[in-house]
Amino acid sequence: MTLEQVEPTREALVVAITGGRGVCAHLNTLGIHVGDRVMVVDRAPFRGPILLEVHGSRVALGRGVARQIEVEFGGRRVTLVD
Amino acid sequence: MRVVLVGQPNSGKSTIFNAVAGYRSATANFPGSSTTYTTGRVLLTGQELELVDLPGLYSLSSVEDQPGVAVRYLFDESYDVIVNVVDASRLGRSLELTLQLAELGRPMVLALNMVDEAVYHGIEVDQPELGAELGIPVVATIGRRGRGLKELFRTAIQTVWSDRRPPPTRYDREVEGAVERIGTLLGSSSREISLPTRLAALKLLERDPHVMERALAPEDSSLRLQVHAVVADLQNVHGWSADQVVSGSRHTIAHGIEDRVTTLKPPRPGLRERLNRLLMHPVTGGPLMVAILGGFFYLVYGVGQRLEEPLVGLFDQLRAALGGWAPPDTFVGALVGAVVMGIGGGVAIVLPYLLPFLLGLAVLEDTGYLPRIAYILDSFMHRLGLHGKSVLPLILGYGCSVPAIMATRILESERDRRLTTALAAFIPCSARTVVIYGLVAAFVGPLWALAIYLLNLVVVATMGAVMARLVKGASPGLILEIPDLRLPMARTLLAKTWLSLKEFIVIAWPLLILSSAVLGILEWMRADGLLNSLLSPLTVALLGLPAAVGVSLIFGVLRKELTLVMLVQALGLTELAQVPSMMSTGQLVTFTLFVVFYVPCVATVAAMAREVGWRTTGAISALAVVLATVIAVVSRIGFALAG
Known about the structure:
The structure holds two protein chains of two kinds. Chain A is 16% helix and 34% strand. Chain A has one domain (3-72): Ferrous iron transport protein A (FeoA) (SH3 type barrels). By secondary structure, chain A is α+β, with helices and mostly antiparallel strands. Chain B folds into two domains: 2-161, P-loop containing nucleotide triphosphate hydrolases (Rossmann fold, 3-Layer(aba) Sandwich); 285-476 and 495-642, no CATH class. The longest helix of chain B is centred in the middle third of the chain and has 41 residues, at 285-325. Chain A binds chain B through residues 21-31, 33-36, 42-49, 51, 55-65, and chain B through 8, 58-59, 61, 63-64, 89-90, 92-93, 96, 121, 123, 207, 240-241, 243-244, 247-248, 251, 255, 280-283, 285-286, 371, 374-376, 378-380, 382, 387-388, 412, 476-484. Strand 4 of chain A pairs antiparallel with strand 9 of chain B.
């Protein structure tokens, strides 16, 4: 599943970043790498950005960016029917 | 001795710089508030230091199309010591940059900044332990309170004298092997790269396009292939792209250090956290934003009105007194009258609105509310083909278009920068705000002024939506750090407002007085009529305004405030309050709308040309004139129909 589908207040483990080199590098600089735990704090209405907490700082990611981040819960991959 | 302040965005470099060198460098509580570097000279412990405040950078690798100002400076300029400013509450992430800076092999000191913030978040850093881990001196600082800064620079000077350089970071075995192999390859190449070999090798592994260009000559294809082979080997071993391997490895090392040197206590959820929840909450966030921005508008209006009246009265008395001494129909009288008008226009008309406006904007900037607006408006901005980060330059545009256009540099893609620059030029800056407040809010009513702002927003939004479809490419999407909310420091707010105000006082005001004098002489020679009649097809025939507004519009190209002050003089009046006797409500609104949209001022045009080139600038300016004319004509027709 992607980060876009994670419900607020849930924590997830980043397993892959499918975006291009630029997106990867930019996320890296904000402390988001494969293997990092991120917590979804909020999802803005009207398909607005997703607010994350990662290593103690808050980062807002647009939906398009969030869709490029593959996550799973606690080591177990969750398949979501949507 | 040259000291460079380097750190990630919003780590407080500029605050430290300003605390020692005087308020000179723009600070705000959001990433990317400094876009160019600022230098200052200070005398500390008997040693003259040249301080360089570099714009914030997350990493030495270039994410963007161009290497940033900071990276270029660090690679190519000469300096004696790096002061790496890190936010103690974001230690792990900040150390990722520290580890890269260490590879530059220059003397380096770590400023562990915002330790008070870290304590608030329940984070305690073992400073000696951190120093031992990194092999460089560490000094705890609180930049905005000036704590630890003397100690910081004293340590920096000592580090230069003892020539203590940071040890390189040890990555995992495969990375180290690859770095060594590339190092050997580079050693055999004759190309001068002016970077430590180890750093160049790491950056080549990360496939940094700028270091590749620097280190690998296009004609030397064998070197190129050999380096690629090393990169491919590393990728095969790890199953990741090499840049992710290096960056991931650095991430692990940095967070390992963080884990070893910090102790965590559960933070107490304070008032600040609760306020933050409200401001960003899906339900309350939007309405609160409207309330905050609306309140800001009314506050500026209220304060401005209260200041304006007594000041205008004072200058009217002064002019009346001078009129008796030098009658206005003599040359000296005309000149003196015009100069007093210019001085008075600045003090009595412009300053009352400019001052509360700039102060209010400084509060919005320093509390860290602006990135929250970007978060709330992201989905709306996507409809304009941009993303939330573009909101920051646009809001700064309400202050002045020049910093707004420079702030477009925080955007990742060329396309977004161009689009946002075009839109930012149309946002009414504080000078145009002065016209909106001074003419429309004062004589037609504050709701009308608000309507002009809303109309402007609708026009800007429509333009954005149309242009985004015409310009190729897609916006990369929002990736924005949301800084903690902070209580602004009164001293910083005042210093910052003063810095912007000084811009008005030393550049705009003399221009205002000079223009006023020129107009006075033109009027005395009866030459203003010629200019007015040249412009009359536009002003009179098309817009239905008095012919006399022509000259004020011409001067408005220099500075938009001039249109208002010169209008009074051009209409042959002595004070602003008499304007409604010469212009109807419809004319006031039409004139203001034209002023809001027509050609950006000279300074804006220059800033635009620097960022997007003359061709685009020309196109934007031409569009502005057409748009202003169309909107003003529609307004005229609207008022005529409404009677």
